[in-house]
Design a protein that fits this description.
The structure is a single chain. By secondary structure, this protein is mainly alpha-helical. It has one domain. Helices cover 80% and strands 0% of the residues. The protein is built from twelve helices and no strands.
C-alpha cells in the first residue's frame, strides 16, 4: 500500500504543481460552460414559445434535467472526454519509458500492478475534479432556477445518476489512455491511439445499427454510447456498471502486461 500511495502522490504532484491540471480545468470549464449556457438559453426560449402559444401540456413536460443537464453530461461532456482524457493520460507511462525511468521502477521492489494502479488512480482523481466542475452547473440551476408548473427545479436522483455515468465514462477513457501510453514511448502517438480507440467504441452503435442480426446487436452492445443512456435517465443499471468495470479491468490488465514486458526488454 505504501508504494502505491507514494506513486499516487507523485502523480498528483505532477498534475497540480505543473500547468497540466490548470490548463485542463480551464479549457474544460470554458467549453462545458459554453454548452451549458447554450442549453439554458434554449430552455428559456422553449418556455417563451410554449407560453406564447398557450401549450400548457408541453410546458408541463419541460424540466431542467432533460433539457440542460442530460444533454450536457451524457452528450457533449462525454465527447470532450474522448479527446481530452487521452491527452491527460498520454504521459503516464510513455514519459517513464522515454526518460528511461521505467527501468528504475522495474528494478525496485514495486510490482507492475502497483505502478499501473497508482497512475490510474491519479488520472481518475482528475476525472473526479472535472465531475465536480460539472456538479457546479447543477448547483447553479438549483440555486437560481425556477421549476416549470408543479415541477421542482431538479430531480436530484437523475442528476446524481448522470454524474455517476460521467465518472464511469471518464474512468473508462483513463483506462484506455493508460493502456495506449504503456505500449509506446511517444506521448503524441499514445494520445492519438487512445482517441481513435475511444471513438471506435463510441461509434460502434451506429455501425451495429446499420447491420442486421446478432452481429449488429453485438456491435451496438459493445459501444460506450449504449451504456450511458440508463444513467442519463436516472436508472442504475447493473449490466451497464458491469460493462464499464469489465472494460476498465481489461485495459488495466493489458497495461500491467505491457509494463511487465519491460522486465524482459
Amino acid at each position: 500500500m505504501r508504494p502505491l500511495m507514494g506513486i499516487y502522490r507523485k502523480e498528483l504532484k505532477i498534475y497540480f504543481t505543473t500547468p497540466v491540471a490548470y490548463v485542463v480545468f480551464a479549457l474544460f470549464s470554458i467549453v462545458a460552460s459554453f454548452f451549458f449556457w447554450s442549453f439554458v438559453q434554449r430552455f428559456q426560449m422553449q418556455i417563451m414559445q410554449f407560453e406564447q402559444y398557450q401549450r400548457a401540456d408541453l410546458l408541463d413536460r419541460l424540466n431542467l434535467n432533460d433539457s440542460v443537464l442530460t444533454p450536457l453530461y451524457v452528450g457533449y461532456v462525454q465527447i470532450i472526454f474522448l479527446f481530452m482524457l487521452p491527452l491527460l493520460t498520454m504521459r503516464l507511462i510513455a514519459e517513464e519509458r522515454r526518460n528511461r525511468t521505467m527501468e528504475l521502477l522495474m528494478s525496485s521492489p514495486v510490482r507492475p500492478a502497483t505502478v499501473v494502479l497508482a497512475k490510474y488512480l491519479g488520472a481518475v482523481t482528475m476525472v473526479l475534479c472535472l465531475a465536480a466542475i460539472c456538479f457546479v452547473y447543477a448547483f447553479i440551476l438549483e440555486a437560481f432556477g425556477e421549476g416549470v408548473g408543479d415541477r421542482s427545479v431538479l430531480d436530484w436522483s437523475t442528476t446524481w445518476m448522470g454524474l455517476l455515468g460521467l465518472v464511469m465514462m471518464g474512468a473508462t477513457c483513463c483506462a484506455v489512455g493508460l493502456f495506449t501510453s504503456s505500449i509506446t514511448d511517444n506521448q503524441i502517438v499514445a494520445a492519438v491511439i487512445g482517441m481513435m480507440t475511444l471513438l471506435f467504441f463510441w461509434v460502434l452503435r451506429g455501425i451495429g445499427g446499420s447491420l442486421e442480426g446478432q452481429l449488429g446487436s453485438a456491435l451496438a452492445w459493445l459501444s460506450l454510447l449504449s451504456h450511458i443512456e440508463s444513467f442519463a435517465r436516472g436508472v442504475f443499471s447493473v449490466a451497464d456498471m458491469v460493462y464499464f468495470l469489465s472494460f476498465i479491468a481489461l485495459m488495466l490488465f493489458l497495461s500491467i502486461r505491457a509494463v511487465e514486458s519491460q522486465r524482459w526488454t
